[in-house]
Specification:
Layout (H helix, E strand, L loop, with lengths): L1 H22 L13 H11 L7 E10 L2 E11 L3 E8 L6 H13 L5 E6 H6 L1 H11 L8 H6 L4 H13 L8 E3 L12 E7 L1 H4 L4 H12 L5 H22 L5
Parallel strand pairs: 3-4
Antiparallel strand pairs: 1-2, 2-3, 4-6, 5-6
Helix pairs in contact: 3-10, 5-7
Length: about 250
């Protein structure tokens, strides 16, 4: 009887392990949880360069007092650092809405940094985007891989990206931007990456971080959509005053 009970427990435990693997595909198959072609392209491009110790978690949920948010990817790095990567299709993202969302995520999670890459960068200049990421975070890379990416870029692109990284290492209110050789004739710089760090939500040194954090603090009872709508009205009013008086009021 005891033997039957032991065998039964083993069968149950084996079943539980199998079901856990099926219901939690994150560790074994991150592609199964991607939700857009640019997410798949980003993951396919970056994964082959990463060290094996990094855990990739797609569709990572963060709870905040103003709403819950699902992040495209979170990379868990040994030592406790977590980096979020957001793949932004141009038609689906608004600057201030994303900024408020990112501040809330950084304030109420273990995420240490959020990096947003626009759709053009992922679809047409992924190697240069990855080079920027790895210049900022060499600990993500397998040994010797940075040279492999450099072989895929022109010297001008390498210099442009290196200058962007050195220009303001860390959070920046405007995006890091550069051109790829095929788009030198463009009036605008098509590759855009936003980089936002937790430290800017703890001790903000830049205007937009300070402004958004103070705004959230003064509107604790609003949900995320209400925050976004009210802040958008605040920005419109500030722009209106600037146009009237030639001076932006803080």
């Amino acid at each position: 009887m005891a033997e039957i009970e032991t065998v039964g427990n083993v069968v149950i435990e084996t079943y539980r392990n199998i079901m856990h693997d099926i219901q939690s595909p994150t560790k074994k198959d991150p592609f199964s949880l991607t939700e857009s072609p640019i997410e798949e392209s980003f993951l396919l491009g970056i994964r082959k360069f990463l060290t094996q110790e990094i855990e990739i978690i797609p569709q990572y949920w963060v709870k905040t007092p103003h709403g819950n948010f699902r992040l495209d990817f979170v990379f868990k790095i040994p030592g406790g650092k977590s980096i979020c990567f957001e793949c932004d299709g141009q038609d689906y993202h608004e600057m201030y809405k994303d900024f408020i969302r990112d501040v809330l995520v950084l304030q109420h999670s273990d995420i240490s940094e959020i990096i947003r890459i626009n759709g053009f960068g992922i679809n047409f200049a992924l190697e240069s985007c990855l080079y920027f990421i790895f210049k900022c975070h060499p600990d993500l890379l397998k040994e010797g891989m940075i040279q492999g990416i450099e072989h895929l870029l022109s010297e001008r692109e390498i210099n442009d990206i290196t200058c962007e990284v050195k220009l303001d290492f860390g959070s920046q209110e405007v995006p890091f931007s550069w051109n790829i050789d095929a788009c030198r004739e463009y009036d605008t710089l098509p590759v855009k990456i936003y980089r936002r760090e937790k430290k800017e939500t703890v001790n903000p040194a830049k205007f937009l971080f300070k402004d958004v954090i103070n705004f959230i603090e003064l509107n604790k009872k609003l949900d995320f959509e209400q925050l976004n709508e009210k802040y958008y009205e605040k920005v419109k009013e500030a722009v209106k005053r600037f146009c009237q008086y030639g001076k932006m009021e803080k």
